[in-house]
Amino acid sequence: LVYPVDPKHQHQYRNNEQQQTPSIRVMTWNILAQALGEGKDGFVQCPLDALNWAERKYLILEEILTYRPDILCLQEVDHYYDTFQPILASLGYHSTFLPKPWSPCLEVASNNGPDGCALFYRRARFSLLHTSHLRLSAMMLPTNQVAIVQTLRCRETGQRLCVAVTHLKARSGWERLRGAQGADLLQSLKAITSRAAGSDPVSRGPGGGSGTEGVPLIVCGDFNAEPSEDVYRRFISSPLGLDSAYKLLSADGQTEPAYTTWKIRPSGESCSTLDYIWYSHGAFTVDTLLDIPTEEQIGPDRLPSYHYPSDHLSLLCDVSFREPRDQPH
Ligand code: NDP
Ligand code: CA
Hints:
CATH class: Alpha Beta
Radius of gyration: 19 Å
Order of helices and strands: EEHHEHEEEEEHEHEEEEEHE
Strand content: 25-35%
CATH topology: Deoxyribonuclease I, Chain A
Number of strands: 15
Number of helices: 6
Distance between the termini: 39 Å
Shape: globular
Largest sheet: 7 strands, mixed
Bound molecules: NADPH dihydro-nicotinamide-adenine-dinucleotide phosphate, calcium ion
Helix content: 10-25%
CATH architecture: 4-Layer Sandwich
């Protein structure tokens, strides 16, 4: 069953009807851990009813199932075993979950376990070659943040790709830690993508590579960092050849959206761009992006709300492997 994407909300960049292989639909979303939303976040304009898990979970699932991504990267998942794993498994998804070592959810009474990152892919499209569960380090010290990296093989074409999901340290004052976590993640990604390419001649060189010698890469997550931060600069200038998909929504193609999260806490309103889909620009083209809702759609009480189940918005894009003639020079 395939649900159509509402054409009003998607931006098409490239008609890939001529392509031999279908594009890969990628979604990333910080879905707001249930324990944090009810117990720690202090969303003062959000009615408590709107945070009721029995109903909120259906809004999250509805959003996922509306778009049926081939790859789904979730952050702040504290209902993996009782909700997302079984439901998405029954819909054809393979999944893996990595909790934070010291999840703040555990400090909330009647929590449902630790929150963490979860990575899902559609079994019909990919087979799994390798999984890495990473605890991110900063200045050689282990931190409370994690990442999952998987190497997948497209069943239809045999092409390989690596996919990663992460959720970096939150809050202002921690910019240097996020920079160090990003550097650590990039180093791991370099090692994993090079290793994956080593055993796969198809992904080497033009046609399969990312412009460097590694397997093409997609990195999704809540980086808790505005584009002005060190960790963003590290990603955009890394030797892995990554670019941020959502820049393509802007008129000049160079500007990130104005926000991916928007909430009101007792300390005030916070509207910021923290979530990203990074992709190897030598290996992939971005065909379609899901629009960011307007300020009017979000409404005066901001997020979360009865209409939007998380304080973060979902990001979604379709990417395609570049054809060999399509390689950038
Ligand atoms: P982070 O600082 O990364 O944030 C944790 C969560 O809080 C994130 O999901 C974040 O959401 C959310 N958050 C961000 N800003 C605020 C805010 N202003 N008010 C409320 N919530 C916010 O957490 P860490 O991983 O560094 O863990 C820190 C917490 O974990 C400690 O406060 C403690 O509770 C617990 N801890 C316990 C330990 C123990 O020994 N028991 C050891 C270490 C940590 P988003 O990403 O969406 O912004
Ligand atoms: Ca949060």
